[in-house]
Amino acid sequence: MGRAVAVRRWTQTAVECYKRGCNCEGCFYKDFFSGSSQKCQMKASVLELVRVIGTPSNIEMQQFIIED
After folding, report:
1. pTM value?
2. Sign of dihedral through CA atoms 10, 26, 42, 21?
3. Alpha-carbon gap, residue 63 to 4, rounded angstroms
4. Residue 44: closest CA among 16, 60, 22, 62
5. Coil, helix or strand for 13?
6. Selection from 22, 15, 11, 5 nearest residue 66 by Cα
């Protein structure tokens, strides 16, 4: 993914991103990062959380998008 991502627990923002399948449509941070040279790292965080901790419990998720 290019950058190291340190994760410890599922945050509400990470759960919301996971539920959207890491699709930025409807995300608060989409507007925050639009027009910026910085890129949202939430997708990388969500993928790392799934790898390290596993999926959040009791969550209905949309289709999970893994490709960049």
Report:
1. 0.70
2. positive
3. 25
4. 22
5. helix
6. 22
Average pLDDT over residues 45-50: 92
Residue 4's identity, in one-letter code, is A
Q: Which two tokens stand for residue 47?
A: 């993928």
On the question of pLDDT at 61 being above 70, the answer is no
DSSP string, the chain: --S-----S--HHHHHHHHTTT--TT-HHHHHHTTSSS---HHHHHHHHHHHT-PPTT----PPP---
50 neighbors 14 (Cβ within 8 angstroms): no
Amino acid at 9: R
